[in-house]
Amino acid sequence: MTTSTLTLPDGRVLEYVEGGDPAGVPTLVHHGTPGGPVLDPGWESSAREHGLRLVLAARPGYAGSTRHPGRCVADVVADTVALADHLGVDRFVTWGWSGGGPHALACAALLPGRVVAAATLAGVAPYDAEGLDFMEGMGEGNIEEFGLALSGEEALRPLAQEQGAAMADVTPAELAEAMAPHLTPVDAAEITGPGTIGATLAAQTRTGFASGVDGWVDDDLMFTRPWGCNLDGIRVPVLLLQGRQDAMVPFGHGQWLARQLDGVVDARLTEEDGHLTLVTRRLPEVFGWLRGRWDAVTG
């Protein structure tokens, strides 16, 4: 995994990492909330097996990426275009997990000439989605967090600073304890189990909070506002994964998105998956699907 920075047209800095197959299919990755530019070793190994080149950028305010106050989900598109142009990439596939899911969908909606296919794993639905109770089924930690976000930055920031400080130098076991109000037993077991996701999440939070918690604060505020793009306009294939054992992004979000994306979506809604199992157990499935869509279009 290599780390680089790019100066964007508006003068902001974007930090990103690359991994997987350097000569593979360009695959732009959108991290979760909170998060940072760290690729799990298992993701890289699977990406190499499927011939994918992973490029993960830190959203504004995370790690070394300059803050962009007041951003909306669709603002990721301009940054993604700048990064793809910088890399010499014309067309690409994209995927996002959790808070990264909406950003992958925004790219699919607004860049149909460049995005070949997109995948969203446990992706958040719009707060103003008709027929969706955004917080129904969330763990108590997320309910508190988004309740404060609805009251604005002044109300939210103290919580983010307190929790960010607690996670600044956290171990996987400590992370599982800190995230307990957000986790189902299925996901708690993933963090403390024999895999690498606990260490990766700990590294993502340490890296993501290197310059403070602005990215986390802005993500939460952003998810309570309109996205700035219309999902009805998506015409490229979308893979959607959501598990019922998820207390961070409830099952209803996946169901709503599946209905909204009818006609382009391959929706895989499972009873057994949680939030974390989608990246610990199902990512090879996602990578295989993305590679298949790429091959079908590019020959």
From TrEMBL:
One of its GO terms (molecular function) is catalytic activity. It comes from the Bacteria. Coiled coil: none annotated. Residues 28-261 form the AB hydrolase-1 domain. It holds the Pfam family Abhydrolase_1. This is Pimeloyl-ACP methyl ester carboxylesterase.
